[in-house]
Design brief:
There is one protein chain. The strands form three sheets. The protein has a five-stranded parallel sheet with strand order 7-6-5-10-8. Strands 1-4-2-3 form a four-stranded mixed sheet. It is an alpha/beta fold and 238 residues long. Helix 1 packs parallel to helix 2 and helix 4 (104-116) runs parallel beside helix 7. The longest helix is centred in the first third of the chain and has 14 residues, at 44-57. Strand 6, helix 5 and strand 7 form a beta-alpha-beta unit. The protein has seven helices and eleven strands. Helices cover 29% and strands 20% of the residues. 38% of the residues are buried. The protein has helices at 18-27, 44-57, 66-71, 104-116, 134-139, 155-161, 222-234, and strands spanning 12-16, 32-37, 61-63, 79-84, 95-99, 121-125, 148-152, 166-169, 176-177, 187-191, 209-210.
């Protein structure tokens, strides 16, 4: 199985780590094109489960060390999945909208939180970090196999597709505190770039809101802000 370093233009990506690989094998089986096991992998129960799924679905499986030297410098990575990129289209419903996210780890963490709060549609406004980057996939802990992520060239493109959603841009100076603002479905929770937040023009869209915190910090980081937003928006669902 020929393995090369990941490139954004490739039609495949890599899932690194047994937990992430299992999520793909269980929830996105048809896009798993191969499994690589490290010779030192000793978790026999997990290995047997992976082998069983691969055998049942005719997924090629090899044992070799070299791909790990190419793709992962982490000592605790013993399983790699070669995964065909799944170009998703988000559906009607509740959405997270990320405007120009730039960090792979942050995007992956938000994917995982979104899945945990029952939000399976994520709109990403470009330019943005690659949602298929193996760093994104690994940070998602496998949620990338289950959420739908669609790229839009502009927020206007997104808004034209979903004109009836209720828009909630998160602004540092949002006029309404989130805890005082009812979030109505179908909602779009809109968050900005890690460094700059949302551009000021978003304050004219929908209902701008803010997450209150002390003045000891200037802002929350993006994954934490997104998780708080998703919790508040969905907490009456549980």
């Amino acid at each position: 199985m020929k393995i090369t370093r990941y490139r954004k233009e490739d039609d495949i990506t890599y899932a690194l780590g047994a937990t992430v690989v299992m999520e793909y094998l269980l929830h996105d089986t048809e896009n798993v094109k191969g499994i690589i096991i490290h010779p030192d992998f000793r978790a026999e129960d997990t290995k047997e489960r992976i082998t069983s799924i691969c055998t049942e679905n005719k997924i090629p499986m090899v044992t070799e060390e070299k791909p790990f030297n190419i793709l992962s410098q982490k000592e605790n990575c013993f399983v790699i999945a070669v995964v065909a990129k799944r170009q998703a289209t988000i559906t009607d419903g509740n959405h997270i909208v990320l405007v120009n996210p730039s960090n792979a780890g942050n995007l992956g963490t938000i994917m995982r939180s979104a899945l945990g709060f029952g939000i399976e549609n994520i709109a990403v406004i470009t330019p943005a970090v690659d949602p298929f980057d193996p760093k994104t996939v690994r940070a998602s802990m496998g949620a990338a196999a289950r959420v739908r992520v669609e790229l839009f060239e502009s927020f206007d493109d997104y808004r034209r597709r979903f004109p009836n959603n209720n828009f909630y841009p998160f602004m540092l100076d949002g006029s309404s505190k989130m805890q005082h603002t009812p979030i109505e479905e179908n909602f779009s929770l809109i968050l900005g770039n890690e460094a700059t937040g949302l551009p000021r023009e978003f304050s004219e869209i929908g209902q701008p809101i803010r997450i209150e915190h002390t003045h000891n910090i200037d802002s929350l980081n993006l994954p934490i802000a997104a998780s708080i937003a998703m919790y508040e928006a969905t907490r009456n669902n549980w």
